[in-house]
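re: ur question from earlier - yeah i can do the single chain one, its not a big deal. heres the input i used so u can compare w yours
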Amino acid sequence: MSQETGKFTISFADLERPTQIVEKDGIFIGRLDSCEIVLDHKAVSRIHASINFRDGKYVLSNLSSSNILTINGRKIAAQRGDVLADGDTIQIGPFTIEVGRLEDEIVLIVESRFTEHVPKKTGDLAPRAVPPRVQQSSEGVLKVFWSKRNRQKEDWGTRLRPTEKPKPGKAMFNWRPTGDLRRPWRFGLFVWAFLVVGAVGVFAFLRYPQSYAPKPLSNPHAATFENSTIANRSNSDSCTTCHTANEPLENACIKCHQATEFHASNTRAHEESGITCTACHKEHQGSDFDITATAIASCAECHNDYNKNTYNGRAVRTAHEGSYGYPIVGGEWKWGGVYREVAAAIPEINSSATGDKDEQARLSREFHTIHVARLKAPAGIKGDSNGLVSCSTCHNSFSPIDVETPKATCAACHTTAAGATDRDQRFGAVSANCISCHVQHPFSGGRWSEFLTDDALKRRRDAVVREINELNSK
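and the output i got, formated as tokens:
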């Protein structure tokens, strides 16, 4: 075992699964079959957690923002982690994982603790007899009142008369309302109003504590900078830059994030669904919080079979049937193409149009135009004589067409190696994520720049600047 590779011994105490030994730098825990530890339960996320071997230590990281992960009864926040020690107990849903350390080896014993709570039956209770209310008759009340009324009495100060004698003159100037006959507010109404408002306030504080005491802004929004390529000004830790009385928060995002190489416009699919900036990007989570990380996590949280919400009448589902890779479905090549606004930032697509005979031919042309002779082949991947991606980079044979090799070559570009510093940091560490392939903000000059040739990069940046100028001129 090398110094950078961990050794995981995984045993299932009460599950009919064999013990397995895995030697790699990290493993995943979740519902997906691709995980090393598969926990099939609705309280477990598809990729719930990971255990990575770093510098002789095994680090547990929480990759789920919707389900709970605890270690020794202590909750681990989303995108956070902790070092595992001998005797630790990990709790994920109804599963516990006991941890043991033997030098550089870690032993994980998985045990399920399914419990079902069946409510007790209660017998039908006979309705309690409620005596009829005693109605007091008001018959003769007015007769008694008028019989005792004496207009000659000088009883000033009673409940039915003013507290002082009227002054000479017209009654319309001398009459003063006393409110004696007005029904007063019951004291109980004030008590109930106080209790209801207090309960709502307590619930709001427990459910949305950031509204009462928000955490600091993230460093990009708190800092002061100049000449940014994605923003025309810095926020400098100001509240009123984003929060105004007469405009929604998203307007402030769009006004600020307009620069030479960036425009805060969504893809058409998200615009039609009503998705705004704050739906993906969360703020007031702390100075070291990564806003981009929340956006990546929100993709999987929204596009999920368990999400029953609809967006302008559209329902969402788990993307790609829970996997990713070369677009082969049922043995046939399937690709939906790029959005129109994304294609506007890739001039090669339109310049290579030759009158496609059908829709499949158009999609194939777009796919190969984006990749062939436009990208530099990454390390370890075969390129042409100029080091660029060619047909043989992905396909070892063409009759029949090789569809297995592209699965590996796709991953070479659309994932990030652990510890790599020269790759687009929006890519998730070790594994791919949604933005590894999909573009949310199409008019951005910094996407996958490390793979583009110099000419392709210049053409893309010129196209982005042109599109941004047209958007700003409207």
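The mean pLDDT is 78. not sure if urs matches, ping me
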